[in-house]
């Protein structure tokens, strides 16, 4: 049975997944503190095989450059960029052995930066660079690397963005998370003779 590692689930969501998927288990680590991920992973059993590593976790906090404090920058860079790099590094031997697929869920902000999106966009531009570098480094080891760039998706993060923008939030106006998940599954399930490097998803309504 394939083994997939997915980042981003909090405790409540992890419990739901455990109930829905018998045999699933959790790996505990604080993505906001990537310096301690190595220690956290060393204290728990790790998968012997990983067929895909899906970097889903992300946080956002908007504001003009003139008002963003270092703490806000550090928080977004840690979760959105440094933690994915560290998780990948720690799991890389297993990923190589399995010839795994690594998926980085990026954002339209990883391609274009807009006013008041500087910290988030910087973290996502960095995530693109991480993915592109990893792809070149690990191609010979059989690892596939895909970046997915969803447009605005109906989610608690999107509700927060609308609140910070002072706009009314209507989830029906944005991409259903299930649609984004479908694109990720498509990339992971491709035959081994093919690889999707970059995949952009936009609202179709």
Protein model, in words:
The chain is of the alpha/beta class. The chain has one domain (4-201): Rossmann fold (3-Layer(aba) Sandwich). It is built from 6 helices and 5 strands, in the order βααβαβαβααβ. A 5-stranded parallel beta sheet has the order 1-2-3-4-5, sandwiched between helices.
Q: Helix and strand layout, with pairings?
A:
Blueprint: E1 4-7, H1 11-20, H2 37-42, E2 52-55, H3 70-98, E3 101-105, H4 118-138, E4 144-150, H5 156-165, H6 177-189, E5 198-201
Parallel strand pairs: 1-2, 2-3, 3-4, 4-5
Pfam families: adh_short
Organism: Streptomyces katrae
Protein name: Short-chain dehydrogenase
Give a quick precis of the structure.
The protein has 205 residues and is of the alpha/beta class. Helices cover 43% and strands 12% of the residues.
Query: Whole-number radius of gyration?
Result: 17 Å
Give the end-to-end Cα distance, rounded to a whole number of Å: 37 Å
CATH architecture: 3-Layer(aba) Sandwich
CATH homologous superfamily classification: NAD(P)-binding Rossmann-like Domain
How many beta-strand segments? Answer: 5
Q: What CATH first level would be assigned?
A: Alpha Beta
Helix and strand composition category: alpha/beta
In terms of per-residue confidence, which ranges show pLDDT below 50 for 5 or more consecutive residues? none
- Determine the fraction of residues in helical runs and give it as a percent range: 40-55%
Biggest sheet overview: 5 strands, parallel
The total of helices stands at: 6
CATH fold-level assignment: Rossmann fold
Q: Which geometry do the CA atoms define?
A: globular
Strand order in the largest sheet:
1-2-3-4-5
Order of helices and strands: EHHEHEHEHHE
Query: What proportion of the residues form beta strands (DSSP E)?
Result: 5-15%
Number of domains in the coordinates?
1
Overall mean confidence score, pLDDT: 90
């Amino acid at each position: 049975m394939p083994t997939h590692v997915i980042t981003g689930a909090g405790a409540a969501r992890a419990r739901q997944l455990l109930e829905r998927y018998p045999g699933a288990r959790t790996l505990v680590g604080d993505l906001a503190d990537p310096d301690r991920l190595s220690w956290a992973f060393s204290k728990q059993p790790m998968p012997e095989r990983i067929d895909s590593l899906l970097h889903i976790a992300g946080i956002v906090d908007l504001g003009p450059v003139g008002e963003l404090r270092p703490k806000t920058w550090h928080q977004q860079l840690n979760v959105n960029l440094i933690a994915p790099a560290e998780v990948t590094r720690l799991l890389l031997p297993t990923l190589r052995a399995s010839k795994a697929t690594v998926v980085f869920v990026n954002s339209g902000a990883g391609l274009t930066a807009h006013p008041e999106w500087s910290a988030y966009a910087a973290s996502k531009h960095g995530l693109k660079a991480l993915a592109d570098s990893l792809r070149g480094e690990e191609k010979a080891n059989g690892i596939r690397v895909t970046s997915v760039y969803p447009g605005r998706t109906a989610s608690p993060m999107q509700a927060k963005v609308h609140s910070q923008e002072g706009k009314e939030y209507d989830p029906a106006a944005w991409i259903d998370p299930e649609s984004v998940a479908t694109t990720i599954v498509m990339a992971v399930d491709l035959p081994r003779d093919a690889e999707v490097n970059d995949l952009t998803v936009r609202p179709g309504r």
